[in-house]
Amino acid sequence: MKRIYKQSLIFYFLYFCSTSLSGQGYTEIATAFTEYFPLKTGDKSFQGSRTGLNILAPLALNKEKGNYLLAGLNAETIRFGGAPESFGVDRFYGISPVFGYTGPVSDKAKITAVATPFWQSDFKKKEGNAARFAGFVRFARQVNESFTWRVTAGYRHQYFGPQYILLLGMDWKAGERWRFFGDLPQNFTVSYKLHERICTGLGFLANLTSYNITGQGRYFRYSYAHAGPFLEISLLKNLILRGDADYSFIRKYEVYDDGSRPDATLILFQLGSKPVPLSSPLDKGLVLRATASYRVSND
Question: Is the pLDDT of residue 17 over 50?
């Protein structure tokens, strides 16, 4: 797959396991994904799954200069099948429109700004489902044809309180076959090109978000970090299939009372007081993910 330099827009601090614009020389116009993860708490085993769709449309203001408006939509559902009563939840839904701008500030640098309302809830009742706000600004600078660095700062109004985002990223093409890219401490990928249409490597992904549990005065905190190998195949010029087999070494799917919150959260880390969950801890374990995306080269 042909890849060239382009400043990236990652809508991942909102849905950290899925990207709308990628930093690897292409734009992902549409992405559909599904995850499966067996779960266990105590002696009770059950299943979790997450399915989502991300759509992004860059609307050219000045295509020659690289100025674009960004409009899109992200949607997902999380389900827990056969969960014990002590787990406390069974499913959640999330939807978030995307509005933004990306464009150059110099020959070597770009800036991207995105704002989005979001709704994340079980939607079993009407109360407590008002829109919340998230947004970020990213600055990226190309050092040479092989290396780009970037910094992202943002904010999200979570159900557990304010979440501040600060990510340091890079995109390094280390030869014809190797590529290293990502935004730490959120995600990172080591990619090796086996063939013009096949890539493999290792990926790391971390996420922290929250959902409203309606009618109970509670919220669900969804936090994880996992890593593992992947295989990516280009079936057609623009259609990409990818499979990941990860191990989740941090897995915290927890229920809290609304009044039980940290003072603030920086990326994935709680600051100040640490609330005590009402639900039992989960064992670490496997995460399987399949992704299909439609990509357009940035030639």
Answer: no
Between the alpha carbon of residue 262 and those of residues 85, 113, 128, 186, 206, the distances in Å are: 26, 27, 20, 20, 19
- Identify the residue with better confidence: 215 or 6: 215
Residues 286/246, Cβ–Cβ less than 8 Å: yes
- Within the chain, what is the greatest distance between any pair of CA atoms? 60
Give the global pTM.
0.86
Tell the residue number behind the tokens 């059950």, with chain if given. 46
Of 80-89, 100-109, 150-159, 280-289, the range with the lowest mean pLDDT is 80-89
> CB pairs under 8 A, 24+ apart, for 38-42?
38/285, 38/286, 39/80, 39/83, 39/251, 39/253, 39/282, 39/283, 39/285, 40/282, 40/283, 40/285, 41/84, 41/86, 41/87, 41/279, 41/280, 41/281, 41/282, 41/283, 42/280
Structure confidence at residue 63 (pLDDT): 80
Contact, 62 vs 80, CB < 8 A? no
C-alpha distances in Å from residue 8, one per residue of 4, 159, 209, 226: 12, 28, 22, 22
Query: How big is the chain, counted in residues?
Result: 299
- Cβ–Cβ contacts within 10 Å for residue 31, how many? 22
**What's the CA gap between 47 and 218, in Å, rounded?**
22
Could you tell me the end-to-end alpha-carbon distance of the chain, in angstroms, rounded to an integer?
Answer: 12
Distances (CA, A) of 163 to 39, 59, 115: 27, 29, 15
β-strand partners of 167: 152
Contact 183, 12 (CB under 8 A): yes
